[in-house]
Amino acid sequence: MKNPLPACAVAVLLLVGLPLAGVGLAGHDLRTYLEFPPLTRHVAHAGFSWLAFLGVAAIAVLAAGLLAWGLRHGHGRAGGQSHDRARASLPWWGWLGLLLGLGTWVLAWTRFPWFQPFQRHTFTPLWFSYILVVNALCWWRSGRCRLTDQPGAFAMLFPASAVFWWFFEYLNRFVQNWYYLGVEGFGPAAYVLLATVSFSTVLPAVLSTRDLLLTWPALGEGLRAGAPVRLGWARPAAVAALVLAGAGLALVGVWPSALFGLLWVSPFLIAGALQVLWGRCRLLEGLATGDWRDVVAGPLAGLLCGGFWEMWNVLSLAKWEYAVPFVDRFHLFEMPVLGYSGYLPFGLECLVLGDLVLGALPGHRSPGAGPSR
Question: How far apart are CA 145 and CA 139, in angstroms?
Fold first, then answer.
């Protein structure tokens, strides 16, 4: 593959510049979108709509059906065989992560007076614990995990993840679908530091979860040899996706209620399209050979991590809440139930970005070369 750094630079320029250019051309005050820390609520969201709710629900059901179909066919090709464990038990650091996670969970959901100075800072240790436990489970099931196989590359995922999620925080300024509570007392420097550390756990968590999922035969070997997909349309489709996603990002701040879903879809389309145009997109290369593992395991990893994010968030002191146009009803924790569908493309975005970041490291194997490859 060509050097991915130019593709990353173009993606950054598009993701940062297009939304700001759109609201600027529409005559909006740019200072509203650049406030930091972001505390002001300036977007008026559309109310609930049964028509929109049923339409989004139909799309979510279709996506779930496709994932279920992939799992069923993967299970059939895997022959229902059990996975041979490579180790007798979890490594010591897996048990350490489990104990740390359980202890932090208790502290996050309680209000002990002696813990009050640290009460708002439980997110990061919870997710460091999750990452340790998931890698330990992966090592236990397959004898391999990112943490032990490629520690240097794995460490690079943390700063990349922080930059990655700061982009979503920036894009959220144009639609304001989530906002934070319990952070009002932080100044800009403290906010940046604490938020960056928290955001650094996103990519390692999702990619490690994807690796763990692939240790199950139905998701690993079962989806390795599926039906291949022809790629003759890849480059024209990439150009079209880049144009449409770019136009959507330019307009998302102008019509935030109508286009808020592009917050999750456009970054994936832009990053994937640039990968294709720069010479290699691992997701499409896999489909060309009939390898459906990432297409199924990526969204599932995003959804599984999303479930833990929302669950741990609901009773924490420093937390987020949602204001989602048209579908803001029937909450599971703080998230409207249909909002979980956004974690499906988000899982693929994490895989694409992981490929871009790790692909720039000399001699590094593709992040697809996980435990089951």
Answer: 5
Q: Which residues, at least 6 apart from 53, have a Cβ–Cβ distance to it below 8 Å?
A: 326, 327, 329, 338
| Phi and psi at residue 334, to the nearest 5° | -85, -15
What percent of the chain is helix, strand and coil (3-state, nearest 5)? Answer: 65, 5, 30
Whole-angstrom distance, CA of residue 359 vs CA of residue 11 = 15
How far does Cα 205 stand from its chain's mean position? 9
CB 72 within 8 A of CB 212: no
Buried b (16+ CB within 10 A) or exposed e, 15-47: beebbbebbeeeebeeeebeeeebeeeebebbe
CA distances to 358, 361, 364 from 152, in Å: 10, 10, 10
CA gap 260, 56 in Å, rounded: 13
Q: What is the pLDDT of residues 178-208, one digit of tens each?
A: 999 988 888 888 899 999 999 999 999 999 9
Q: Is the bond leading into 37 cis (omega within 30 degrees of zero)?
A: yes
According to DSSP, the residues that pair with 320 across neighbouring strands are 180
The tokens describing 237, both together, are: 């489709």
Which residue's entry shows tokens 């109508």? 258
**Residues 282-318: tens digit of each pLDDT:** 777 788 888 888 889 999 999 999 999 999 999 999 9
- The C-alpha angle 131, 136, 140, rounded to 5 degrees, equals 150
User: What does the alpha-carbon distance between residue 373 and residue 357 come to, in Å, rounded to a whole number?
Assistant: 20
8: which 2 tokens?
A: 């990353």
- Write down the pTM of the prediction: 0.90
Residue 294 Cα to chain centre, angstroms:
14
Q: How far apart are CA 350 and CA 342, in angstroms?
A: 13
Name the token pair of 81: 């065989």
Cβ–Cβ < 8 Å for 108, 122:
yes
**CA triple 343-184-176, angle to 5 deg:** 35
Q: Give the number of other CB atoms < 10 A from CB of residue 144.
A: 20
**In the block, which residue shows the tokens 């019509």?**
255
DSSP state letter for 182? S
